[in-house]
């Protein structure tokens, strides 16, 4: 069900429509830029994209929203976040395992209280919308109420959201542990309650191998087999200490990925966050099954995890999404996240083109979530989840952008230096949410 505006409307501005993957198709063929463009919307969906004059003539008398020189794009899709970590974002001085124990787990314990979960879910969706993000895939906490809170809040806002109960039955505080059986039962009940309702998708969510016993991974693999249209999200090979720990905990596994693979948790609808320090066998298997990796660049520098090998993994044809990893990541902004991806690209020998960065933050993430028929593009029939970017939102950006010779030079300073001030408008299913 789509809950957007029933009335037809035209949103006018500059339009950037990246129609195919710019890692595979040369940028001039992959993207079209309309200097005076428009997007026609009806019943919450995009019905046509074209020159503003042509669309005005085709739909006379239609309500028109004039965004001037702002750049219209699909709303950003953040493919890996932990909404419960909103309140502990930007916590100082730790690496992954210490960071989890010091900051993350104490905060996640608070989600036992449904009111607190609802308060943070509301705050989180407001913050991300202000940053131009219209869809996220979120880990919740072990408490089913934390999933109810995010889905209920997203449903009321008409948003397409992926979420799941984070399952853990060892190496975490007792108050944050479930069991193999309760993880199965509670996740199954949440799937029955939410999966496929309105714009909501359930992701079966083992946190990562160190906090699950083989029994729990096995149970969640069985649950995925019983609900193959659900997504499955987890973490993979983020830090070297973590990988060494996985080796101790799973002495029979060939590598980190094998701890998932051996328990039915490797598949095309699987999302593997971070995936930095991969073995050749792991890359081969991920490519073979068509699984998705999620690059979390601000997190990888903030927690000191390492450098994602974007160019090499793209060359293998892997599906790759982009994400903030709030709150291991240091920003709610997908602009800031694209900037960090660019910087990591530079450190690994490839300058990512603005078209590639924008594609990762929209269609690339949508494809990773298997929602690219619905979000992340301006294709006719897609949901009208849109962002309008002011490409001169601050003096620093404006003085650089004014000498731009094409749209790529015009948008790059906003990618590198922009934030929520750059967001001039947001629409969710055709309904204005910001601006
Ligand atoms: N690995 C397991 N849990 C987490 C988490 O919450 N954040 C990050 N960045 N990595 C993890
Ligand atoms: Zn994460």
In this structure, how is the largest beta sheet organized? 9 strands, parallel
Structural class: alpha/beta
Small-molecule components bound? guanine, zinc ion
The tally of domains stands at: 2
The second-level CATH architecture of the largest domain is: Alpha-Beta Barrel
Please estimate the helix content. Answer: 25-40%
- Through-space gap between termini: 25 Å
Report the radius of gyration as a whole number of Å: 21 Å
- Structure summary, number of beta strands: 16
The CATH topology annotation of the largest domain reads as TIM Barrel
Mean pLDDT rating: 97
Number of helices: 16
Descriptive keywords:
binds guanine; binds zinc ion; alpha/beta; TIM Barrel; 2 domains; 7-stranded mixed β-sheet; Urease, subunit C, domain 1; 435 residues; 9-stranded parallel β-sheet
